Amino acid sequence: MLLRVSKNIQQFPAHIVPILTSVVIECQRAKLTTEAYEKACVLMRPEYRTQIAEQYKKKIENIVRKPLADDARDASEVTSACIYCGFQLPESQLDCVQCKNISPFCIASGMRMVREDWTYCLSCNFPAKRTAFLQVLQTQEVCPMCQEPCKASDLPVVPDPQAQITDYKALFQLSYDKT
Q: What is the pTM of this model?
């Protein structure tokens, strides 16, 4: 989700440096080296460099100093098919560049939903990737969205999520029409 925020960082002018610092640190932890490197390079620009917290400055400088290996440059975020048109795009990207639709996100992983791995919380009805939701339920037996008790055995398997996809598309279109 931080990557999504960082793509629209100019909408948060007062918080650019703290947000990008968080993105660099979390991307480094998640082994997203390309993204960490790109955002660290932005932080090293003269207008932002002086605002970086001292505790992170050295780490960010080291990330920028080490050039990316060729395989790290080629390795990018995992892609999956858009639920509307099938176009391949990064899992963190909710809006499809091909069909211009907005996909719902998984409440367990924060990534875009895919047709093949669909479930939802019985309390709040928010969608989730079944595999990600099951992982969350191994450590806590509550929904990550509504915090209601939830058991893995209660999660519905949705073999064909077309009805839910149609509902989400209508919902997103309705909110777009109001703006």
A: 0.65
